[in-house]
Fold:
Amino acid sequence: MLDTDIAIIGGGTMGLATATALANRTTRRVRVFDAARPPHTEASHHGHSRLVRVAYGEGRAYVPLAQEALCGWQRLNQAADAPVFIPTGILNIGAHDSPFLAEVETSARSFDLRTESLNHADITQRWPGWSLNTSFRGCFEPQGGVVLTERLFQYWRSVIANSANITAIDNTPITSISRRHERFVLRSLAGDQWQAGQILVAAGRANRALLRPLGIELPIQRVRKVFGWFDHTPEYDAARWPGFNYCGPAGDYYGFPAIDGHGVKIGRHDGGQHIEDETTPGDFGSHPSDLTDLRRLIDRHMPGVGELQRGAVCEYLRTPDEHFIIDEPIDGLFIAAGFSGHGFKFAPAIGDRLRDWMCSHAPPASFQPFNLGRF
Ligand SMILES: Cc1cc2nc3c(=O)[nH]c(=O)nc-3n(C[C@H](O)[C@H](O)[C@H](O)COP(=O)(O)OP(=O)(O)OC[C@H]3O[C@@H](n4cnc5c(N)ncnc54)[C@H](O)[C@@H]3O)c2cc1C
Structure:
């Protein structure tokens, strides 16, 4: 049986964020196992881009973590050969009484964040790509932006390749975890076995099945989500147009300016289809509402956005309260799961704090709200 000090199961967003935080910061040997070779389209991290924002509509308690993560993205920009974070700014749009927008503004006030409150006319004059009537208002956060995911993964993987103590083991699905004499034993689909003193389970949709035999039940629902890239007029280019969140009568949406010739990207945050275990979500277009859902926002509010270039499908792994699960339910076994469609932006901060927790054995107080025992 092969031996390692730390095994990370899942070399996706949280697995690589933690592995790169550990790189060259400990002499312990770390192995990162992934079922495929990230980045890839069978997980929750693909699709070119993710929004990063700090004035947080999902709850002001996230702001300190988001601030730490934003510093992390800015640091990564200096370390990587090409920028992974583009500070486009983020525009939050909603109806006057939108609870999301109210929480964005409360977050900004509570933490003295730089934001601008705007009425519908301010928005449409500044960004003519929007068509909004008087029932809308907005809050612009200039420090927010967009992370380019594939470029980020390339950078993270280069950090691992150059580190003395971390090894990425791709195309190796882990099928079981068991305990033997205070250590954890992992078995792969090919039948290989490793033992490790500590493990981080960050395997996305496989987390539930891996943890159930250890008596750990994760209340996580897989939800199919679609997004697409569209033709557009020049006012939607990244130099002129920010990323956005929209909560209004059309639904809850998010979107990205056109970057590197990719087209304007739009996705729907609410809705989607539940996916049962052992099934695949189905390609874009396999569900009748895939395109009409995206077009609803465009047809109401984005006059310069045209035809679909291509669509894609991704999964949210959603907890009942849509907050994360980050915990150590058994000594030495850490879980990073249930990021509910909004975890990516926090990755550098989560990776750093998990590293510190694994090395110091002291749980960060800031992760207390994410404990599994709340369910
Ligand atoms: C369409 C969409 C848009 C999103 N937009 C945003 C956004 O704008 N901003 C934001 O902050 N968040 C966003 N999110 C959420 C964010 O992308 C996720 O929360 C985050 O990527 C989850 O990270 P993860 O490490 O849990 O999962 P992943 O990044 O999916 O990593 C899990 C890894 O585990 C591997 N794996 C699976 N099974 C096994 C196994 N048996 N053995 C070994 N490895 C295994 C997989 O191959 C995968 O690489 C979005 C999500 C989606 C789907």
